[in-house]
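Re: the multi-chain job from yesterday

Posting the exact lines I submitted so nobody has to dig through the queue logs.
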Amino acid sequence: MLQMKTHYPDAHRIEPAKRHTLAVVVDNEPGVLARIAGLFSGRGYNIESLTVTETEHEAHISRITIVTTGTDSIIEQIKSQLERLVPVHRVVDLTLTGEAVERELCLVKVVGKGDYRVEAMRLASAFGARTLDATLTSFVYELTGTTGEVERFIKLMTAVGLVEVSRTGVAAMSRGAEGIM
Amino acid sequence: MSETMTGAEMVIRALQDQGVEHVFGYPGGAVLPIYDALFHQEKVRHILVRHEQGAVHAAEGYARASGKPGVVLVTSGPGATNAITGLADAMMDSIPLVCITGQVPTHLIGSDAFQECDTVGITRHCTKHNYLVKSIEDLPRVLHEAFYVAQNGRPGPVVVDLPKDVQFKIGAYLRPLSNQHKTYRPTVKGDMNHIRAAVELMVNAKRPVFYTGGGVINSGPQAAALLRELVQLTGFPITSTLMGLGAYPASGKHWLGMLGMHGTYEANLAMHECDVMINIGARFDDRITGRLDAFSPFSKRIHVDIDPSSINKTVKVDIPIVGDCAHVLEDMLRLWRQGAKQADKIALQEWWGKIEGWRSRNCLAYKNSQESIKPQYAVQRLYELTKDRSPYITTEVGQHQMWAAQYFKFEDPNHWMTSGGHGTMGYGLPAAVGAQLAHPGSLVIDIAGEASIQMMLQEMSTALQYNLPIKVFILNNEYMGMVRQWQELLHGGRYSQSYSESLPDFVKLAEAYGAVGIRCDNPGDLDAKIMEMINVNRPVIFDCVVDKTENCFPMIPSGKAHNEMLLNDYLGETGADIGSVIDEKGKMLV
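And the result, structure tokens for all chains:
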């Protein structure tokens, strides 16, 4: 009683946090992304990656892929809270529906000469990266892969003169014949 | 057939088509065309408030007293930002509102124009949904959709931000055949398998309790009637949150009183000891649950809520039912009747025996006084002297609000308007204005504190302008009482900034507004003065001078469970200061 400093209940539950990929189908109307991003920041949820583009132009429907981490109960809350938003049609937890296919694309600029340059070319070909631009002192590579592959590629390129990275974030889709629409 | 008209005229026409009778608002540059359109008609009556926050609270009071959506009309910039507190309040308490805000012309949006603010950006977090209408073609649909979204599913406030150039534009108005949003379809009917499982659990319950909330009120009078039937049929005890008072009558024999931080001993212990909890339209708010890991440790829980995000948010439940309270209650009743179900009579009798034991503690007892008016006594007398008139009660926020919830007995839904989730001081007076407009012939009383009332006091002027005979009943203890109580409990009685210094003379203040002022500081005069207040057919400010140090009990101290309540009788005969009582742990924990 004497220790009570606040009238709010204590934070208590300790559960393991897991990474989940959510596909969110929304009306592509002004402010919809702000609504979703605001929901995450306002309620203290994490966003690790977020990608969005209109996927059905006639119907003005966009698909948002969000990678987030949280305990099972938090993930359930995130899903319910997203579904509560008026312009949100559907939320699918791709992590729960089985091993989803996940890919992201990165562009990497490396600058260097001599051995550095040769090593950069070797690494790029080992990863199957495409060369999009080359000068006498630089390359721009494109790599598509899982987040893990992209992370590894960038880490290795850092040692051979990486100067700039641009990543799209994760796009994901469930395996099998069933669609989410 | 569509008709050609301006955007401003469309706004008024849409309100008329929606059957709106009252709009609460305040004019300004960016809504002048709409005010001009208002001028040319008589179907929609505009109520001019004195501050935009007051407009929103008045619309909330109107909505809750009438069951219809409240409508607000304010200008851009400061008009919109002043409305924010009200919108946040309506969001937390799920009140259906449509708030139309003016905006600078579309070509000036983003240029920091005069009285420009990003209204949809600012209100995104405190509305259920909002719209910025940039094209006249979208306007008729958006206006009607706003009413649909505000009222369907879990109700809430919807903002329609309307740039001034769109108000002037001419377009085709056609009332849509349906107000529906193109995709938003909240679940109304509960899953029958879950309802069946819930009824099965209820049949086998030994120590059941109904825990109901504002969702029952929002679902409409039908839900309250069905709830009463179900309680009658099952014979289970029932308690309710602050927001749900009136859904089940306080005079009903199964009524345990309100639960939660300042709920009754019997209600909280029943929650703690129950084996089956039936939550209907409540959301396990932290003021209800207390310490979460000790909350109702022995129960299987059924949770009926129209909002899926309320389920398993803070408290895990065994049988979730997503749906509207009235629909689910109807199904529960049907299943109960069809199966000719019988509750476990013997177990129930034993359970009631236990509850009677708790009830005999008489947790709302207090030590009355001949010298000073005890605030609890004031509310009790106010109830006794007005109950025959079935009054509408609003409150501000603080001790007086809790005393009103504890000592005023509510028999019917929609008669109790208070700021629950957001806890907004200043809510009560404008809410009373709204309630009085919804029920012109009825008695409407704002039970207030001397601190809260000063937050929206200017709305007295609104009450006068429209001849609304609201009664403002101030429990004046010269303190922000709840703050003072917490400082006594938690901060060693250091009353930092909680004394109401330099109070106005409320009687003179009432007179300055053209209202009636009454002061009472003697328990002996109280009844006569309350009668004088209700017999005046004009707005009244009643300055009820009460005991300054009275605390609000019972109380679940923070971080404690329902079975660790603090009761009034531990204060002892002399009213010893509570700080010293708290030290003796065994004494004060029940």
